[in-house]
Amino acid sequence: MVNMAPPDEPIPLALPPSPPGAEAPFVVRTGDGADDAACGRIMATSALASSYARRLPHAALLLADDSPLCLAGRSRMVGEVAGKVVGFADYRPWDGHIKYLFVHPRAQARGVGAALVDAVQNAVGGRVGVHVLAVNDSALLWYLRRSFRIVDGWEEPFADVPAVWIRLVRERLPDERP
């Protein structure tokens, strides 16, 4: 069984390379069905702690759903610290679409999300894309700072209420040359 840090336990995080004696190293690995429960809890915890949750009160039940998140034909990259899942990215390997990218709130702003997106892009060997709710301005800015660009937008329901979605893509890893 995969462990997730309990809500009151601090998450140690030191991104590689870690100096001797540093906190447990951060590891990205290929995920599988054994990670479903941890990923479901991280998704709910992250969504409820987000700035966009307040803007979507109609979606509170959906955002709070912490049931196991099945892969449903997607692939997964998981970020771990000391054997505990702290973030994940579910994606479609055939077209590079990232369906879910969630990092536990206490592990955010430490490079976990960027490492997961880079691992997905390395796995698919090319372009990656993501759809983000327009009300999730912090996520939009996060992706733009990581070399994604806005391609288009559209209106589609989220939790049975019309919502605007933005599609972003990144052609290559930020340090790759064309």
UniProtKB/TrEMBL annotation:
Pfam families: Acetyltransf_7. Residues 1-25 are annotated as: Disordered. Coiled coil: none annotated. Residues 7-22 have a biased composition (Pro residues). Residues 26-171 form the N-acetyltransferase domain. CDD domains: NAT_SF. PROSITE patterns: GNAT. This is GNAT family N-acetyltransferase.
